[in-house]
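Colleagues,

For the teaching module next term, I've prepared a clean inverse folding example: a structure given as tokens, and then the sequence designed for it. I'd like students to try predicting residues themselves before seeing the answer, so please don't circulate the second half yet.
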């Protein structure tokens, strides 16, 4: 993707900024699971589906390593734009080894729950490192980038289509948290994750998610769809 096109994409709200290459899917994570909605990246974060209700899914993710950066901003879209630029430069060769590699999916944004309108918030944007660099990733030349390790964990997930905007992300996070509270599920209330899987050039069948990290045993609710062994 050219620099000119990247600059033009900076005007698109929030994770329309995700310039994913149109490539076949392979895996990072559990090898026996797949993401049918992840179709534009060579490598995509994989998971095992634990159960599904009408309101959310419970997924299990194995430990993975990401390259991350923080951005202080009053609005999620502004913070994501600043952070995305740094990370895109990193995968385009702005590292000590001069390595260039393709985008992975999804792009993940950690969003603090308590955000005061008159104070900026800290948003953390992360790119999943390709499987070839999970153990020894290239060292960033920008000191604002760092590596973060996602632990082996369960998450509550709500999926939705369309474009990921600040307002839509907040609305779906609110709907997910309400469903979890009704189910008496325990989860981390300090932040949620906003995830985007698609490039800005994809107009139909877009896929976005919000996550809350499970605390304790996951709860599927009284009525849920049990999954046979080996189903994903």
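(Answer key — instructors only)
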């Amino acid at each position: 993707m050219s620099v000119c096109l990247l600059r033009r994409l900076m005007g698109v709200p929030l994770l329309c900024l995700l310039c994913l290459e149109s490539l076949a899917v392979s895996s990072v994570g559990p090898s026996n699971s797949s993401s049918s909605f992840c179709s534009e990246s060579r490598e995509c974060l994989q998971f095992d589906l634990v159960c599904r209700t009408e309101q959310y899914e419970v997924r299990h993710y194995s430990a993975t390593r990401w390259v991350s950066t923080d951005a202080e901003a009053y609005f999620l879209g502004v913070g994501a734009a600043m952070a995305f630029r740094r990370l895109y430069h990193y995968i385009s060769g702005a590292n000590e080894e001069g390595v260039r590699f393709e985008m992975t999916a999804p792009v993940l944004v950690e969003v603090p729950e308590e955000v005061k309108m008159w104070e900026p918030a800290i948003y953390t944007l992360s790119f999943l490192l390709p499987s070839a660099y999970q153990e020894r990733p290239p060292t960033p030349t920008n000191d604002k980038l760092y590596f973060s390790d996602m632990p082996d964990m369960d998450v509550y997930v709500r999926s939705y289509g369309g474009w990921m905007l600040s307002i839509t992300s907040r609305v779906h996070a609110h709907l997910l948290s309400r469903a979890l509270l009704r189910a008496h599920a325990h989860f981390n209330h300090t932040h949620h994750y906003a995830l985007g899987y698609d490039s800005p050039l994809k107009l139909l069948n877009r896929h976005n998610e919000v996550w809350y990290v499970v605390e304790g045993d996951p709860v599927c609710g009284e009525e849920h769809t049990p999954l046979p062994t080996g189903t994903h």
